[in-house]
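During the no-cost extension, the postdoctoral fellow (Dr. R.K.) reprocessed legacy sequence entries with the updated structure-token encoder. One reprocessed record is reproduced below for audit purposes.
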Amino acid sequence: MKPSILLTNDDGISSVGLWAAYEALSPIADVTIVAPASQQSAVGRSISIFEPLRVNKVIIDGISAYAVAGKPTDAVIIGLYALKINPALIVSGVNIGENLSFESIMTSGTVGAALEGSNQGTKAIAFSLQVEDQGDKFDDPRTHRQSFDATKKVVRDVVAQVLGHGFTKNADVINVNIPSVIKGGYEVTRLARKLFSTGVEQRFDPRGRPYYWINGPLVSDADEGTDVHAIRKGNISVTPITLDCTAFSASEEMTVMFSLRPSPV
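Re-encoded structure tokens follow.
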């Protein structure tokens, strides 16, 4: 029997990236799609706990899928606990736009879904595709000017390797970023610190009141060995991520700091 995969994303049920992943994986796995009903980019790992979630079974190009009126993490939780899917692996993506650096993985709904899946006991892989024009991230995800042919080969290859060899023991999520034009091979990387040079642009509405856009260009490059640098070179970045955010290297310093403090009570 084929292994079972729960496939989700943050661009929504109609995203061309999601269906590219389905096409790549269906020959080697039993794939069930449970994805947000609409665009949910940059919601991170937020969960809907103050409103009910509706789930609709839909048919797209003859394939059954589940559209969740919620966030990527909601889709994962619904898939695992309401639909009773028991996958060998969770795959999130393919996201339209790269998810690189500390900065992006903390806000990415694509990576957020993968982290949630792993937190619930099923390891996960997140896939993202670099875009040359950042405006492509905000276009209709049902269409995309870029070919997904090479991306589908990467998705199938990575997932087949993980299913065949087992998930990396000391990682919870594998974050895969695919350059828009692949020039090299796979590179195991660490997270860069930044992807964007953050800025805020002030504008004024017709009544003269200010409003703001958070914006900023991509950083030009990062250190050797980082995910940002790998993508800039045209390599496929493969980054192991852990759920444990503890800063172990700070423990000794903080132990000294707080051992000098008297008890507040």
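Residues 95 and 128 are 4 Å apart (CA to CA). The chain has one domain: 4-193+220-259. The remaining legacy entries will be reprocessed before the final report is submitted.
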